[in-house]
Input
Amino acid sequence: MKQVLTIAGSDSGGGAGIQADLKAFHANGVFGMSVITSVTAQNTCEVRAAFDLPEEIIRAQISAVFDDFDVAAVKTGMLSSQVIVDVVVDELKIRKPPSLVVDPVMVSTSGFKLLNDDAIQSVKGNLLSLSTLVTPNRHEAELLAGMEIRTREDAGVAAKQIAELGASAVLVKGGHLDDESAAVDVLWDGEKEAVFESLRFDTKNTHGTGCTYSSAIAAHLAKGCSLEDAVGHAKHYITEAIRYGLDIGKGHGPTNHFYFLDATPK
Output
Protein backbone atom coordinates (compact mmCIF):
# COMPACT_ATOMS: atom_id res chain seq x y z
CA MET A 1 0.00 0.00 0.00
CA LYS A 2 1.36 3.40 -1.00
CA GLN A 3 2.09 5.74 1.91
CA VAL A 4 1.07 9.40 1.81
CA LEU A 5 1.84 12.18 4.28
CA THR A 6 -0.31 15.15 5.19
CA ILE A 7 1.27 18.21 6.82
CA ALA A 8 -1.60 20.30 8.13
CA GLY A 9 -3.65 21.50 11.08
CA SER A 10 -5.93 19.44 13.30
CA ASP A 11 -9.71 19.94 13.23
CA SER A 12 -11.33 18.96 16.54
CA GLY A 13 -14.66 18.68 14.70
CA GLY A 14 -13.23 15.93 12.49
CA GLY A 15 -14.47 17.26 9.15
CA ALA A 16 -11.44 19.10 7.80
CA GLY A 17 -7.68 19.31 8.29
CA ILE A 18 -5.63 16.29 9.30
CA GLN A 19 -8.74 14.30 10.16
CA ALA A 20 -10.28 14.79 6.70
CA ASP A 21 -6.96 14.09 5.00
CA LEU A 22 -6.46 10.74 6.71
CA LYS A 23 -10.03 9.66 5.93
CA ALA A 24 -9.64 10.66 2.28
CA PHE A 25 -6.30 8.84 2.01
CA HIS A 26 -7.77 5.59 3.30
CA ALA A 27 -10.92 5.91 1.20
CA ASN A 28 -8.74 6.30 -1.90
CA GLY A 29 -6.57 3.28 -1.19
CA VAL A 30 -3.41 4.62 0.44
CA PHE A 31 -1.98 4.58 3.97
CA GLY A 32 -1.91 7.99 5.60
CA MET A 33 0.63 9.54 7.95
CA SER A 34 0.39 12.99 9.52
CA VAL A 35 2.46 15.93 10.68
CA ILE A 36 0.36 18.32 12.76
CA THR A 37 1.32 21.98 12.39
CA SER A 38 -1.45 23.59 14.43
CA VAL A 39 -4.22 22.55 16.78
CA THR A 40 -7.57 24.23 16.24
CA ALA A 41 -10.65 24.34 18.44
CA GLN A 42 -13.47 24.14 15.91
CA ASN A 43 -16.78 22.54 15.02
CA THR A 44 -19.20 22.77 12.13
CA CYS A 45 -20.08 26.36 13.04
CA GLU A 46 -16.80 28.11 13.81
CA VAL A 47 -13.09 28.06 14.55
CA ARG A 48 -12.77 29.28 18.13
CA ALA A 49 -9.01 29.20 18.55
CA ALA A 50 -5.79 27.97 16.97
CA PHE A 51 -2.39 27.15 18.44
CA ASP A 52 0.74 26.60 16.36
CA LEU A 53 3.04 23.78 17.40
CA PRO A 54 6.72 24.64 18.05
CA GLU A 55 9.10 24.49 15.11
CA GLU A 56 11.16 21.67 16.63
CA ILE A 57 8.08 19.45 17.07
CA ILE A 58 7.06 19.96 13.44
CA ARG A 59 10.58 19.10 12.26
CA ALA A 60 10.67 16.04 14.51
CA GLN A 61 7.38 14.74 13.11
CA ILE A 62 8.58 15.13 9.52
CA SER A 63 11.86 13.44 10.32
CA ALA A 64 10.18 10.54 12.11
CA VAL A 65 7.88 9.83 9.16
CA PHE A 66 10.48 10.08 6.41
CA ASP A 67 13.07 8.09 8.33
CA ASP A 68 10.74 5.09 8.54
CA PHE A 69 8.19 5.20 5.71
CA ASP A 70 8.47 5.19 1.94
CA VAL A 71 6.57 8.42 1.32
CA ALA A 72 5.03 8.35 -2.17
CA ALA A 73 3.35 11.77 -1.93
CA VAL A 74 2.91 14.71 0.43
CA LYS A 75 -0.08 16.99 0.81
CA THR A 76 0.16 20.28 2.73
CA GLY A 77 -2.78 22.08 4.26
CA MET A 78 -2.85 24.68 7.05
CA LEU A 79 0.62 26.22 7.44
CA SER A 80 -0.37 29.27 9.43
CA SER A 81 2.88 31.19 9.94
CA GLN A 82 6.01 32.06 7.99
CA VAL A 83 8.06 30.00 10.45
CA ILE A 84 5.96 26.90 9.77
CA VAL A 85 6.04 27.41 5.99
CA ASP A 86 9.82 27.83 6.08
CA VAL A 87 10.28 24.69 8.20
CA VAL A 88 8.16 22.65 5.81
CA VAL A 89 10.00 24.07 2.77
CA ASP A 90 13.39 23.28 4.32
CA GLU A 91 12.42 19.70 5.10
CA LEU A 92 10.77 19.02 1.75
CA LYS A 93 13.83 20.29 -0.10
CA ILE A 94 15.87 17.69 1.77
CA ARG A 95 13.34 14.84 1.53
CA LYS A 96 12.28 15.42 -2.09
CA PRO A 97 8.95 13.50 -2.13
CA PRO A 98 7.89 12.25 -5.59
CA SER A 99 4.70 14.35 -5.53
CA LEU A 100 3.65 17.39 -3.52
CA VAL A 101 0.09 18.72 -3.52
CA VAL A 102 -0.20 22.17 -1.91
CA ASP A 103 -3.64 23.18 -0.65
CA PRO A 104 -3.08 26.86 0.25
CA VAL A 105 -5.49 27.00 3.18
CA MET A 106 -6.04 30.66 4.06
CA VAL A 107 -9.48 31.24 5.61
CA SER A 108 -11.97 28.83 7.18
CA THR A 109 -15.53 28.49 5.92
CA SER A 110 -16.67 30.50 8.94
CA GLY A 111 -14.23 33.32 8.15
CA PHE A 112 -11.43 32.54 10.63
CA LYS A 113 -8.05 33.57 9.20
CA LEU A 114 -5.79 30.50 9.04
CA LEU A 115 -2.77 32.00 7.24
CA ASN A 116 -0.83 35.06 8.39
CA ASP A 117 0.11 37.73 5.85
CA ASP A 118 3.83 36.99 6.15
CA ALA A 119 3.15 33.31 5.52
CA ILE A 120 1.33 34.11 2.27
CA GLN A 121 4.51 35.63 0.85
CA SER A 122 6.52 32.61 1.94
CA VAL A 123 4.01 30.26 0.29
CA LYS A 124 4.16 32.26 -2.95
CA GLY A 125 7.92 32.69 -2.90
CA ASN A 126 9.12 29.33 -1.62
CA LEU A 127 6.51 26.55 -1.30
CA LEU A 128 4.76 26.77 -4.67
CA SER A 129 7.99 26.16 -6.57
CA LEU A 130 8.29 22.73 -4.91
CA SER A 131 4.75 21.65 -5.75
CA THR A 132 3.49 19.13 -8.26
CA LEU A 133 0.08 20.78 -7.98
CA VAL A 134 -1.44 23.67 -6.05
CA THR A 135 -5.21 23.57 -5.42
CA PRO A 136 -6.64 26.99 -4.48
CA ASN A 137 -10.34 27.69 -4.26
CA ARG A 138 -11.70 30.86 -5.83
CA HIS A 139 -10.85 33.15 -2.91
CA GLU A 140 -7.35 31.70 -2.47
CA ALA A 141 -6.71 31.93 -6.20
CA GLU A 142 -7.80 35.58 -6.22
CA LEU A 143 -5.27 36.33 -3.50
CA LEU A 144 -2.46 34.40 -5.19
CA ALA A 145 -3.15 35.70 -8.71
CA GLY A 146 -4.12 39.23 -7.69
CA MET A 147 -7.32 39.29 -9.75
CA GLU A 148 -11.07 38.83 -9.43
CA ILE A 149 -12.40 35.42 -10.45
CA ARG A 150 -16.04 35.04 -11.41
CA THR A 151 -16.15 32.61 -14.36
CA ARG A 152 -14.35 29.49 -15.57
CA GLU A 153 -12.50 31.70 -18.06
CA ASP A 154 -11.25 33.84 -15.18
CA ALA A 155 -10.19 30.66 -13.38
CA GLY A 156 -8.11 29.62 -16.37
CA VAL A 157 -6.33 32.97 -16.49
CA ALA A 158 -5.69 32.87 -12.75
CA ALA A 159 -4.30 29.32 -12.96
CA LYS A 160 -1.71 30.46 -15.50
CA GLN A 161 -0.78 33.48 -13.39
CA ILE A 162 -0.31 31.32 -10.28
CA ALA A 163 1.82 28.92 -12.30
CA GLU A 164 4.12 31.84 -13.06
CA LEU A 165 4.89 31.99 -9.32
CA GLY A 166 6.67 28.65 -9.74
CA ALA A 167 3.96 25.98 -9.41
CA SER A 168 4.27 23.10 -11.88
CA ALA A 169 0.48 22.89 -12.20
CA VAL A 170 -2.55 24.69 -10.78
CA LEU A 171 -6.11 23.50 -10.16
CA VAL A 172 -8.50 26.38 -9.48
CA LYS A 173 -11.50 24.83 -7.77
CA GLY A 174 -14.85 26.14 -8.90
CA GLY A 175 -17.11 25.50 -5.94
CA HIS A 176 -17.40 29.25 -5.40
CA LEU A 177 -17.68 30.40 -9.03
CA ASP A 178 -20.80 32.16 -10.29
CA ASP A 179 -22.04 29.17 -12.31
CA GLU A 180 -24.95 27.88 -10.22
CA SER A 181 -25.62 24.75 -12.25
CA ALA A 182 -22.22 23.07 -12.15
CA ALA A 183 -19.05 22.81 -10.07
CA VAL A 184 -16.26 23.51 -12.56
CA ASP A 185 -12.55 23.12 -11.78
CA VAL A 186 -9.85 24.34 -14.16
CA LEU A 187 -6.45 22.62 -14.36
CA TRP A 188 -3.41 24.23 -15.99
CA ASP A 189 -0.50 21.79 -16.22
CA GLY A 190 1.99 24.22 -17.71
CA GLU A 191 1.13 23.29 -21.29
CA LYS A 192 -2.60 22.80 -21.62
CA GLU A 193 -5.87 23.43 -19.82
CA ALA A 194 -8.31 20.76 -18.70
CA VAL A 195 -11.79 21.35 -17.27
CA PHE A 196 -13.49 19.06 -14.75
CA GLU A 197 -17.22 19.55 -14.35
CA SER A 198 -19.76 17.95 -12.02
CA LEU A 199 -23.21 18.59 -10.65
CA ARG A 200 -23.53 21.28 -8.03
CA PHE A 201 -25.59 20.15 -5.03
CA ASP A 202 -27.80 22.41 -2.95
CA THR A 203 -26.29 21.51 0.43
CA LYS A 204 -24.66 23.22 3.36
CA ASN A 205 -22.72 20.09 4.29
CA THR A 206 -19.41 20.92 2.62
CA HIS A 207 -17.06 21.30 5.58
CA GLY A 208 -13.61 20.02 4.65
CA THR A 209 -14.25 19.81 0.91
CA GLY A 210 -10.93 21.39 -0.10
CA CYS A 211 -8.87 19.26 2.26
CA THR A 212 -10.62 16.10 1.10
CA TYR A 213 -10.28 16.89 -2.62
CA SER A 214 -6.56 17.70 -2.48
CA SER A 215 -5.86 14.62 -0.35
CA ALA A 216 -7.66 12.39 -2.85
CA ILE A 217 -5.52 13.86 -5.64
CA ALA A 218 -2.36 13.15 -3.64
CA ALA A 219 -3.52 9.57 -3.07
CA HIS A 220 -3.98 8.92 -6.78
CA LEU A 221 -0.66 10.55 -7.67
CA ALA A 222 0.98 8.23 -5.13
CA LYS A 223 -0.64 5.26 -6.87
CA GLY A 224 0.97 6.26 -10.17
CA CYS A 225 -1.82 8.13 -11.95
CA SER A 226 -1.05 10.95 -14.33
CA LEU A 227 -1.93 14.41 -13.00
CA GLU A 228 -5.06 14.69 -15.14
CA ASP A 229 -6.25 11.20 -14.18
CA ALA A 230 -5.54 11.84 -10.50
CA VAL A 231 -7.67 14.99 -10.59
CA GLY A 232 -10.40 13.14 -12.49
CA HIS A 233 -10.57 10.32 -9.95
CA ALA A 234 -10.51 12.78 -7.06
CA LYS A 235 -13.21 14.94 -8.68
CA HIS A 236 -15.53 11.93 -8.86
CA TYR A 237 -14.75 11.04 -5.25
CA ILE A 238 -15.36 14.52 -3.83
CA THR A 239 -18.56 14.90 -5.87
CA GLU A 240 -20.03 11.76 -4.32
CA ALA A 241 -18.72 12.69 -0.85
CA ILE A 242 -20.61 15.98 -1.16
CA ARG A 243 -23.70 14.33 -2.67
CA TYR A 244 -23.97 12.11 0.42
CA GLY A 245 -22.64 14.68 2.88
CA LEU A 246 -23.42 14.20 6.56
CA ASP A 247 -26.06 16.44 8.13
CA ILE A 248 -24.44 16.46 11.58
CA GLY A 249 -23.62 19.39 13.80
CA LYS A 250 -25.42 22.73 13.81
CA GLY A 251 -23.48 24.38 10.99
CA HIS A 252 -21.78 23.15 7.82
CA GLY A 253 -21.71 19.38 8.15
CA PRO A 254 -18.77 17.38 6.74
CA THR A 255 -18.50 15.52 3.49
CA ASN A 256 -19.03 11.76 3.70
CA HIS A 257 -15.56 10.29 3.16
CA PHE A 258 -16.84 6.71 3.16
CA TYR A 259 -20.13 7.22 1.32
CA PHE A 260 -19.53 3.94 -0.53
CA LEU A 261 -19.77 1.95 2.70
CA ASP A 262 -23.33 3.08 3.42
CA ALA A 263 -25.62 0.13 2.71
CA THR A 264 -28.76 2.27 2.94
CA PRO A 265 -30.54 2.36 -0.46
CA LYS A 266 -30.18 5.74 -2.14
Observations:
- The domain at 3-261 is CATH 3.40.1190.20 (UDP-N-acetylmuramoyl-L-alanine:D-glutamate ligase).
- The helical segments are 17-27, 55-68, 82-95, 117-127, 138-145, 152-163, 209-222, 227-243.
- The radius of gyration is 17 Å.
